[in-house]
Every structure is written in C-alpha cells, then in structure tokens.
Amino acid sequence: MAVGTVLVTGGTGYIGSFTALTLLEHGYDVVIVDNLYNSSRVAVDRIELICGKRPLFYEADVTDEAALDAVFAKNPAIDSVIHFAALKAVGESGEIPLEYYRVNVGGSIALLRSMTKHNVTNIVFSSSATVYGDATRFPNMIPIPETCPLGPTNTYGRTKVMIETVITDHIEAQRNNNKKAGQPYEQWNAALLRYFNPCGAHPSGIMGEDPQGVPYNLLPLLGKVATGERDKLLVFGTDYASKDGTAIRDYIHVCDLAAGHLSALSYLRDKKPGVRAWNLGSGRGSTVLEIIQAFSKVVGRDLPYEVAERRQGDVLDLTAHPALANEELGWKTQLTMEDACKDLWRWVENNPKGYRQDPPAELLEALKAKRAE
Description:
Layout: E1 5-9, H1 14-25, E2 29-34, H2 42-51, E3 56-59, H3 65-74, E4 78-83, H4 90-95, H5 97-117, E5 122-126, H6 155-180, E6 189-195, E7 197-199, H7 218-226, E8 233-236, E9 248-253, H8 254-271, E10 275-280, E11 285-287, H9 288-299, E12 305-308, E13 317-318, H10 323-328, H11 337-350, H12 361-372
Catalytic activity: UDP-alpha-D-glucose = UDP-alpha-D-galactose
Domain NAD-dependent epimerase/dehydratase: 6-281
Protein name: UDP-glucose 4-epimerase
C-alpha cells in the first residue's frame, strides 16, 4: 500500500526527476506531468533503473487546465502536488518576460484551479532564493533567513514571488471558507521552498541534469567545458565585494534538495500548518572561482574561463540560513560541494550526450549489484 500518491509537475526535469525518485524510494506512488520543453522522457526510464519502480508519465503542459483535469480524473488517488514546472533562466526571463509570466504564473493558477476541482489539498512549491533579491541591502541578513523581506531583482524572481502570493491567498481562502461553512479546513496546506543553487548528479552516474539547450547554471556549464563541448566558461563580474571579486552562492546537492521536498510534504501531511516557507540550502557560501577550482580538481586539470560583464539582476551573495528547515523539517544537507562535483563529473564524463545515449554498461552493472545487496 502506497504512503500516498503525488503529482509532480515538471517531473522529468532536473530537480523534479530526483524528487520523483526520492518519493518512489520512500513508498509513494508518483504521477509526472511534463511538456518536455527542457527535459527528456528518458528520465522516467532512469528513475525506474535506479529504484525498480516506474512513475506514471503524462506529456502535458501545466498551463493547460483541461489536460490537468484529465490527469486528476484518471488518477483519483492523487492527494498532493509538488510543483516544479516553470521556465527558469534568469537572463532569459528579462528578454521574454511575458512568456515567463504566462508559463510560471499562469501555469500555477491553472494547476491550483484543477487541484481545487479535484479536492487535492496539499502543494509543495518549488520557489527560489531569487525571491530575496539583494539581501545585502539590509543589515544582518546574510546568511538569508526566511524573515528577510522579499525584493527580487529580475523577472524570474518576480514570477516566483507572485506564485508564492497566489498560493498563499488561495490556501488561506480555502481554509477560511471551509471554516465559515463549518467544514474541515486543515487539509489545505502549502510549503514554499526557497532554494539556492542545485547541483550534482546521482552517485550511480546514470541520472543527472540534461538541459536541452545551453545550460544557464555554473556547474553544468563547467561540465560542458570539461568534456570539450564548450571552450571556456564565462565568469560574470569580478568586482563584487567578496574575497576574490566573484559572486557568492549556496550550492546544494540535488539529492539533498529532493530529500527536502519529501520532508516538506511529510510536514504538510502530518502537521497541517497552512502555508509555511522554508529555505533549503547548506548555509555555506562559495564564490564562482572557488567552484571552478573545486570542479577543476575533480576533473584533474584547470578549466579555462573568461571574465565578462555582470549580468542584469545578479546580486553579491545568496547564501541560505537553513536553521528553520533543520529544526522544523528535521532536514539538513548531508552531501558536500566536493560530493556534488564528483557526482557531476561522473555523470558528464560517462554521459556526454546526456539522455540521448545509453548509459555505459559498467555503470549499469554496478547499479544492479548495488540493488542486489
């Protein structure tokens, strides 16, 4: 008997696929909805290879309310949603803002409407540390606590704040309306997970990040430099007030991040808190140059980079204060930056074409042996 059935939107994407895997490993049934815009259905096969269970998969767009209705109707056991589906590139969001608002905000509204029709009452939302903007504008806000005022500096971050607001208003209204009508109301709950820089890959080497176009995040770009697919990395700005002039970020292994989603879902189901926001991060800040050095060490050679102008909307320091999640969710990061670099290199070195190739036989044999233990 499954613990519960969870719909994962964007579940073939990077963090979505790892969260789907973690849910299956902990006894949940999983239904994935994804339009495959920036992901591959092969992720579903890799999830099954690792854990021996296969999530249900529907190719559908989160902005298509009728398609979502059909998924809920076919799967009446769904009792919770973990919502990842979104456009996610900070730079691109400033170039095509209407598309970001249409997909990210419009898709979230379509999802909430469909959930309400089908009486699905728990949602875990994949938000972002970008909602805080430049936290250095306030005293004593680095590392960043959940009490830091929100003030995003780019379109992507603004869509995340807007979705957080929509979810909060909706859940609170559902609780208030039910309370007034003398009906149960505590079943309506939401977790807003603000996380920092996901990185790494599965330690088996057969599942990782496989963006369909140019990746926008530092470590996947470094992976492409290491495999020779790109000739160098661009470092955006070396004039920040940090020890080496480059921006500071909090990197979190994707396996730790997936575990954080599971912990948040369990909290909603057990405690029924209404709406809660948690930072998921390590609490350790690393500069861009430190990350380049750490990954270069794992690869065994220096990786070339070139300094470029700062990008619009970038801020000095996005380091998490994860104490609230540590305390309330009983969750904290277990894996280091070095683990993330090693796992990422194992993934990109063995799968230079990502999901557009079969994984090496020796990795599959090692995985089978581990599962047989």
